[in-house]
Sequence to fold (272 residues):
Amino acid sequence: MTDHNDGYTDTSSTNPDFATNPEAAVDGIRLQKVLSAAGVASRRVSEEMISSGRVRVNGKVVTELGRRVHPETDKIAVDNIAVQLDTSRRYVMLNKPVGVVSSMQDESGRPDLRQFTEGYEERLFNVGRLDAATSGLLILTNDGDLAHVLAHPSFGVAKTYIAKVEGRVSAQTIGKLQSGIELEDGPIAADKARILTSPPGDGFTLVELTLHSGRNRIVRRMMDAVGHPVVDLVRRQFGPLQLGTLRAGAVRDLTKVELGQLLTVSRAEVQK
Fold:
């Protein structure tokens, strides 16, 4: 079973001998016990994982069963997938409906995200934003470090959108979206773009766009710039997470596999 974790400081900041002498962490907790408590596997299976070289601590393979770690600071990964050791952290996927603003308290009194977080004990907040007219995948969490990495433009986590746009989109237009266009706040290019459906006549076209940019209303502005205004827009994917069949207005906790994938992406972005 593979799993997950999230950001921290290096153990060497609390114990300067740790980087050169792993056994300096004698006051920590045995690694197999930590893995078991995190729900990765039973303690016996965790020991087998460690012995077979499947577990990393702070990026280095650990095979000693006596190894002790600090769950608050050490980065643990199993099969190169991050493990979350802090059980107080919550990660929720929301399919945000159209008409809801991406705020926990809208000053203008518009429908906001509080209606989706009231059932949780934790104080959750949104990772990034979707404009009120856009629906789709939004992450809610109480993990500030993860939220910062995933939402900050400098880290550039990929997002995939499906846009229903006016008119018939040509292959040349798709090429232009991928090669780059100039907007008022600078150039932008989609990582990927493709036509999903292209009806006859001058109806509507479904276009799938993947991009890293976190700029405001970027998909709508890109499609406006190529002459195909967006009629409807849904975010279907955020990093490794996919919306799937989650209905509009529904929420669910991330699975352990999803969380591991998300935290792994987060760590990789920080290390770039």
Notes: DSSP finds seven helices and 17 strands in the chain. The chain has a mean pLDDT of 87.
